[in-house]
Amino acid sequence: MQASPAVSVRPAERADIDAIARLADEAELFPGEMTAELMSPYLEAPDGNEVWLVASNEAGVIGFAYTVPEKLTAGTFNLLAMATSLTARGSGIGTALIAATEQALVARSGRLLLVETSSQPGFEPTRQFYQSRGFAEVARIPDFWDDDDDKLVYRKDVRQPASPR
Questions:
Q1: Spatial distance between the Cα atoms of 151 and 143, rounded to a whole number of angstroms
Q2: Side-chain half-sphere CA neighbours of 75 within 13 A
Q3: CA distance 59 to 75
Q4: Which segments within 15-110 are labelled E, that is strand?
Q5: What are the tens digits of pLDDT across the range 131-161?
Q6: What CATH code is assigned to 2-157?
Q7: What is the residue extent of each domain of the chain?
Q8: Pick from 115, 124, 121, 70: nearest CA to 97
Q9: What is the pLDDT of residues 17-76, one digit of tens each?
Q10: Which of 6, 50, 59, 120 is 20 to 30 A off residue 139, Cα-Cα?
Q11: What is the pTM (predicted TM-score) of this model?
């Protein structure tokens, strides 16, 4: 899977843990030291339903996406974390990771991909990113993250072709 001639997207490997941890810390997604524990089920069963993908170039890993199945559903998955390095933002890496995630989910009989984010103004670029890739806002939970910080849920049917940017 290619984002551009110099960037590839592939399944994550144990050797990627430190790079993913650095990206998670940089993006303030989760404490990087949690990466090995979070990846453990995937690394023990890489053909299971969890999906960890990395985008890399000659400099190394510059992005990752982490998706898990939603329990008690048929083919619904949650994109729990996705990040690109600060220097790679806006270069199509996120789009490539989303497209590769969608392909991986279809291969696992996936139907829906859900993304949760914040209603805060600083997350407007995040919301625009998902909307421009075919995700639709389907739910809002007021004051979820904190007072005046709603949880927004976006949905996409992954059986539809990936949306170009």
A1: 7
A2: 14
A3: 35
A4: 51-57, 60-69, 76-84
A5: 999 999 999 999 999 999 999 999 999 997 6
A6: 3.40.630.30
A7: 2-157
A8: 115
A9: 999 999 999 999 999 999 999 999 999 987 788 999 999 998 899 999 999 999 999 999
A10: 50
A11: 0.90
